[in-house]
Write a structure and sequence with these properties.
binds S-adenosylmethionine, alpha/beta, 7-stranded mixed sheet, Rossmann fold
Length: 207
Amino acid sequence: MSAQSKNVFNRLYRSAEHAEDLPWHEAEPPELLAKALDQRSAPGTALDVGCGAGTYSLYMAGRGYRVTAIDFMPQAIAMLQARLRDTELDITAVQDDIGTWSADRQFDVVLDIGCLHTPGTIDRHLYKQQLLKWLAPGGDFILLHFGRRGWWDKWPIGPGRVSANVITDLFQPELKLLEYQPQLRGGMPWFMGRSALIGRYWFQRPG
Ligand SMILES: C[S@@+](CC[C@H](N)C(=O)[O-])C[C@H]1O[C@@H](n2cnc3c(N)ncnc32)[C@H](O)[C@@H]1O
């Protein structure tokens, strides 16, 4: 992880009192996550990769999943633990780096909303090796990653941008792409290029 990215996260978490204050916060669960959970026969285990304040860990646990939530920022884990107080939800919060963490089990659902595309955080191929250890056969993997619209769509600040082909090629042949939802988002700061393509992916690992 680059020192620059860690400084950025430090600043963002320091200035956020609540999950809602974080710039990436979206209260609604990702549509593809809801869809993936809907088609599973029964709740099982889930891993929230780069969970932040744990908004989607809480959602998955609320749907009956036993959730492991991992983030390397202590402030993120503290925020999640504060939100867990006085609840009965089954969430284990782990402060660790996804590049080196080894899980003691596999998960039926793995969710990554905005972790892999963090600049300098983990090599994509190492991430895939880790993912294949985490995701159980028959498991669903939901990913949000900034997309790249062309050679010019590269900005020094903000999430790394990668074309949908690169993402789908990376996870094949072990994972099958079930759905891809691209969305052009405007209203971004000028230093992030004003707009960005948001790529949302639903992969499944054959059972
Ligand atoms: C953009 S935030 C998204 C948080 C959460 N998924 C959400 O959507 O609310 C990305 C999170 O990934 C975490 N992260 C980035 N690289 C990581 C790594 N190598 N290991 C663990 N966590 C990481 C950051 O600390 C940050 O909390």
